[in-house]
Amino acid sequence: EAGVTQFPSHSVIEKGQTVTLRCDPISGHDNLYWYRRVMGKEIKFLLHFVKESKQDESGMPNNRFLAERTGGTYSTLKVQPAELEDSGVYFCASSRGDLNYGYTFGSGTRLTVV
Amino acid sequence: AQSVTQLGSHVSVSEGALVLLRCNYSSSVPPYLFWYVQYPNQGLQLLLKYTSAATLVKGINGFEAEFKKSETSFHLTKPSAHMSDAAEYFCAVSRPRSGGYNKLIFGAGTRLAVHP
């Protein structure tokens, strides 16, 4: 079984530019989650998809962040325009059900905004 | 509100020594509790989880954790550290919401160093 795939693994962009992160979940996993870790801080929940629907987006920091999940398959997280404080590692995870089933995390995308 | 406190951002042990990573949580309802590990350049990997069954939970790589409700703790232990255990460890809590247990609240992480 292929794991959760995220790309790019690293991205360096200038303040004000746009960046799109992509996550390919494990096939058959309806649940998809985005988390991020800003340098030196805790890993924080951003949002949760069930198939193509946003189940919980309470962790999205502001309207510069837009998450989509086309057809309930892969997901993208767009940051537009990027700010310095957006730098960090963005993790994606997927699961068949809730945490009773466990998540599988991707390796993350390290975003640096300069 | 839920929160997780990991005591010690850095822990250093000798190879063969006991590993003890501390985690305390707060939750108004019975939580699910987790330990994840992150090795360099890799994603988060589940070590073990407590989901209201046995209070002593055994995980992968010889790790175990005990849920102590009276102390609101879920400390992670391993009897004998190995060099390959060097990584960052995260404690996390989840509580039920509509649709089940979905959202994880993480602690700040503890970086474990193992020296010869």
General description of the model:
- Chain A contains no helices and eleven strands.
- Chain A is mainly beta and 114 residues long.
- In chain A, strands 2, 4, 5, 6, 9, 10 and 11 form a seven-stranded mixed sheet that branches. Chain A has a four-stranded antiparallel sheet with strand order 1-3-8-7, with no helix packed on it.
- The radius of gyration of chain A is 13 Å and the shape is globular.
- Chain B has 116 residues and is an all-beta fold.
- In chain B, 0% of the residues lie in helices and 53% in strands.
- Chain B has no helices and eleven strands.
- In chain B, the strands form two sheets. In chain B, strands 2, 4, 5, 9, 10 and 11 form a six-stranded mixed sheet that branches. Chain B has a five-stranded antiparallel sheet with strand order 1-3-8-7-6, with no helix packed on it.
- In chain B, strand 6 (56-58) and strand 7 (64-68) form a beta hairpin.
- The model of chain B has no long low-confidence stretch (mean pLDDT 91).
- Classes of the chains: A mainly beta (114), B mainly beta (116).
- The A-B interface holds A 3-4, 31, 33, 35, 41-45, 48, 50, 55-56, 59, 91, 93, 97-100, 102-103, 105-108 and B 4, 32, 34, 36, 41-46, 49, 51, 90, 94, 97, 99-109.
